[in-house]
Write a structure and sequence with these properties.
Enzyme class (chains A, B): lyase
Strand content of chain A: 25-35%
Largest sheet of chain A: 4 strands, mixed
Radius of gyration of chain A: 19 Å
Protein name (chains A, B): lactoylglutathione lyase
Helix content of chain A: 10-25%
Order of helices and strands of chain A: EHEEHEEHEEEH
Number of strands of chain A: 8
Distance between the termini of chain A: 22 Å
CATH architecture of the largest domain in chain A: Roll
Cofactor (chains A, B): Zn(2+); Ni(2+)
Structural class of chain A: alpha/beta
Strand order of the largest sheet of chain A: 1-4-3-2
CATH topology of the largest domain in chain A: 2,3-Dihydroxybiphenyl 1,2-Dioxygenase, domain 1
Shape of chain A: globular
Number of helices of chain A: 4
Keywords (chains A, B): Lyase, Metal-binding, Nickel, Zinc
Pathway (chains A, B): Secondary metabolite metabolism; methylglyoxal degradation; (R)-lactate from methylglyoxal: step 1/2
Number of domains of chain A: 2
CATH class of the largest domain in chain A: Alpha Beta
Oligomer: homodimer
Largest interface: A-B, 101 and 102 residues
């Protein structure tokens, strides 16, 4: 039996034991203004700031955020060093990089990856109820790239963060029906 | 007590119950050649292809990959619809997008986000032993942006995937010492 669940050219069947404990830990995005970005990710998406790292010599700060339900905050250490280990061990950390001064430099804006030259596309969040989530986003003044009922792929939304990065929003249970005609 | 572990401007203290079940599920990167990219992510990084979705009308395919130790493959359903729900529910999925024909179109290459215009920076993987991991990457012919002993931040490496995206490689246990002078 294959260790992959679908077929494709290029798949390596052998699972090298050297990779057994590898963890896809983080995705890093540059941000212009940390106050604006942190407000968005901690209010609109409910994320928690797990670790802040200031690099004085190089004049930048990293902010590591995660989706943590309040009852799971106890999983995280209050000891700075322990929490650094946790921050770099666990899956699905969002790393925001702030180069000091960007927030007051009118010449600085970051590239979403969705205009030329294209590359990175988006990050994506699962939500329990897409329509409720999008109504809430609208009430919070969030900018939409695509509302759930726009375009061909009903039931999937794209919002924009304050830097213009795209964030896909979907409800997993609804996707088999949504994708049904396309498999 | 704050629900955040460090201080910063912009943090929202209240955790809106509407966001309690939000999951940071995915990071999407466009790739030129799926055979080349899948070989890299399944061999060099040991990832598993969880779901492939072909969109015939729009002429693109999505490949969803995860770091799954072999003993945890049983957590994933062999039923396509169940596995779609899992694919979009779980944290730390890597989504690779292939626009058909890119692989044979010399004019197409994707932007890493680390040259102008900058934006997305990198994805990052935790590995149990940074030196062993990097020796193995070298033996596999992986391109390095930074080896662990290069530059100022010893013990952290950056490799490049076949499209040129940067991938940070680090060993969590070693980071408190490494970052010690900077906190």
């Amino acid at each position: 039996m294959s260790r992959h669940f679908d077929q494709a050219q290029g798949l390596t069947e052998e699972h090298d034991p050297a990779t057994h404990e590898f963890v896809f830990n983080q995705t890093m995005l540059r941000i212009k203004d940390p106050e604006r970005a942190l407000k968005f990710y901690t209010s609109v998406l409910g994320m928690t700031l797990i670790k802040r790292l200031d690099f004085d010599e190089m004049k930048f700060t990293l902010y590591f955020l995660a989706c943590i339900p309040p009852e799971r905050l106890i999983d995280w250490s209050n000891d700075d060093n322990q929490r650094i280990v946790q921050t770099f061990s666990r899956p699905a950390m969002l790393e925001l990089t702030h180069n000091w001064g960007d927030e007051s430099d009118d010449s600085v804006s970051y590239h979403s990856g969705n205009e030329q030259p294209k590359g990175f596309g988006h990050i994506g969040f699962a939500v329990p109820h897409i329509d409720d989530a999008c109504e809430r986003f609208e009430s919070l003044g969030v900018e939409f790239k695509k509302k759930p009922n726009d375009g061909g792929m009903k039931g999937i939304a794209f919002i924009k963060d304050p830097d213009g990065y795209w964030i896909e929003i979907f409800t997993p249970d609804r996707l088999p029906d949504l994708l049904g005609g396309r498999l």
